[in-house]
Amino acid sequence: MRAFWKGACALALAAMGVGMAHAAKPAPSAWDQDRVLGRGVNIIGYDPLWKDFRQGHFKTYHFFKIRQAGFTTVRIVLQSFEHMDKHNQLPQKWIDTLDWAVNGATHAGLNVIVDEHDYNLCSENPDACHDKLIAFWRQVGHHLRKRNSNVMFELLNEPHGPLDAAKWNATLRELIPIVRRDNPTRTLVIGPTQWNSLHQIDTLELPENDRHIIVTFHYYDPMRFTHQGASWVPAFANVSGVTCCTAEERAKIDSDFDQVSAWSKAHDRPILLGEFGAREGGDMASRVAWTSAVARSAERHEFAWTYWQFDGDFIVWDMKKDDWVRPILGALIPGKG
Ligand code: BGC
């Protein structure tokens, strides 16, 4: 009798154990995910590795360098449309490169934001973009559906121009349910129109019952300082010698972020500052002052952040020296510079 009950108990416990092992873990809340993201950096958006992997500047060991320096997240910047075939499908070679990036980051202990970055084409010609953006998320969303919750999807970087609030909200109404078929609880990152402007955050219409969304905005103010000499912003292409930051300029960063924070609390949506950076046109002392003011203010406001960007321009990593740009790294991660 005793032996029978012992055996029965063991069986019941084993069954419970098996049951527990198979029970799906509850999906983390977007607020928890935002804390998990923490401090990050944008990577490989303009790296030749997408065309020819052997020509890549970024190598697998860079993921470890990023983690060792104290970052916890990479935002993988994807300009995928130019690689699509006439049916808007991405070739296996491109998918393999994406897998290399997601694996490299996750093995190094980094969280990943998969960011579709064809924002210029999508904004200048939303109709031409529509099918490609949907096809991208059908294919890539399906492909990544079994990844852990620390792989998150950013639906489109910086909609702007004709992709205004009304058009962007209509796109989201169509796109979110498509992504949700394969990824019902994956954290999505979505930002407002006008280059993810904080002044447009109130125009964003998100599905009320979908709480697995982090809202993102980008911050480059004052543009005259961060984009001095930038050829792609005609108003500042010939500007130089602008410094930063006066007490007033610092206070402006805080008050801008206060606005975002108030919106975040009112709508119960956590925030990612997905891009910020001051390009090489400014002097280093000013760039350090601005970068650390923005990063610390974001942290005081409990926003996760991803710095623009690892290499190329606005760099925190110097590919020629294969080493950190120490003053910028120190501004981002205190004590690491
Ligand atoms: C764009 C970059 C640009 C940066 C700052 C990013 O979203 O992809 O080309 O350098 O914003 O302007």
Walkthrough of the structure:
The chain has 337 residues and is α/β, with parallel strands linked by helices. It has one domain (29-223, 251-332): TIM Barrel, CATH 3.20.20.80. Helix content is 44%, strand content 13%. The chain has twelve helices and ten strands. Strands 1-2-3-4-5-6-7-8 form an eight-stranded parallel beta barrel, surrounded by five helices. Strands 9-10 form a two-stranded antiparallel sheet. Helix 3 runs parallel beside helix 4 and helix 6 (126-143) packs parallel to helix 7 (165-182). It is globular and about 50 Å long. The model is unreliable at 1-21 (pLDDT under 50). Beta-D-glucopyranose (BGC) is lined by residues 45, 157-158, 275, 308.
Shape from CA axes?
Answer: globular
The end-to-end distance, rounded to whole angstroms, is 70 Å
Text of the CATH class: Alpha Beta
- Roughly what fraction of the amino acids lie in strands? 5-15%
Helix tally? 12
Q: What is the alpha-carbon Rg in Å?
A: 22 Å
Q: Give the ordered list of helices and strands.
A: HHEHEHEHHEHEHEHHEHEEEH
Number of domain modules: 1
Output the CATH homologous superfamily.
Glycosidases
CATH topology: TIM Barrel
Mean pLDDT: 94
Order of strands across the widest beta sheet?
A: 1-2-3-4-5-6-7-8
**Poorly predicted residue ranges:** 1-21
Helix/strand-derived category reads alpha/beta
Let me know the number of strands: 10
The helix content, as a percent range, equals 40-55%
> What does the main sheet amount to?
8 strands, parallel, barrel
